[in-house]
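Take just one protein record:
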Amino acid sequence: MIQSCDIAIIGGGLAGLTAALHLSNSNFNVLVFEKNPYPRHKVCGEYVSNEVLPYLNSLGIHPFQLGAKSISLLQVSNRNGLESKSQLQLGGFGISRYTLDHHLYTKVKERVPVLQETVTEVKFQSNQSTIETLSGNTVQARFVIGAFGKRSNLDKSLLRPFIQKKTQWMAVKSHYTGDFPEHMVSLHHFKGGYCGLSKIENNNVNLCYLTTIDAFKRYKVINDFEENALSENPFLKNFLKQATPVFDTPLTISQISFERKKAVDNHVFMIGDSASLIHPLCGNGMAMAITAAKLVADTFLQNKNSKRNELEKIYMQKWNSTFSKRLSYGRLLQAVMMNSILLNTGLKLSKRNTNLISFAVSKTHGKPL
């Protein structure tokens, strides 16, 4: 039996679920595909800019009722121990994907079917898309929203250029119990990468770092890498020395691509990491995913009588005007974080101008929604 819907959302992560929740307030017939069960952990910085808080509240999502931690201070350090602290212009909150995604899921499934299915192919023909799943089910949709993350087999079937290229990046994430300031998010440089720390609900601390595969190869084992490479930074060394891991095994992801992607590809409206991945500074990828969900939902809700090509054009313009500059600044800031000389110079300058780092980070953020 072939099912049909107005809008199919492939991926039930932060972006996909937020878009589903927003669109469920309309008369659209929405369907969500998610291959994994809830709740679950994901590799993520788990810091969210307050720019999206008004929007989440409007959807009935209240992070602080879920135990989120309010964060207002940013700390940056290099591996020699030089540090700088700065107030974040908007501030943010720390919450795990385990908790936030699951809460969104419970809200969405009250209004929208969420199918635990792996989508294997999306074909566009005669002004509609046909979605095939691993179990052999078929769904026809007027429109498809892609929220399937950083890398997916769907990227291959859609022949997206970035998926053909090998990348140098990998990320590792774990939760810890230990002493860490509740109101602070920190970013610490080490040889070959940088690591973020921030508190989340239950007073756990999220540790997530990005490094190059070449830097990791020298040690091969995560524990050895953290005891040597990460611990060159005295702040990370002190934290790891007194902290206790919550996870039996850290979560990892490799082949992370920061290549440019299309916001609409093969007639699929891309959101979140499927549309583009910002360099992970202060965790603004979560806020971008939520913002993109709003952009795509508004595109459909505000232009119900528009033709497909007009909708695609409107969304691409919205996406580019909202995110293009942020991504450029993100690339620039990562280049500084990965260069010892530039980072050292920046930290010294920030001692004279305490607003320097806050200003630089604000360029990767947006205004309150």
Summary: The longest strand covers residues 83-94. Residues 191 and 219 are 13 Å apart (CA to CA). Residues 308-337 form the longest helix (30 residues). The chain has a mean pLDDT of 91.
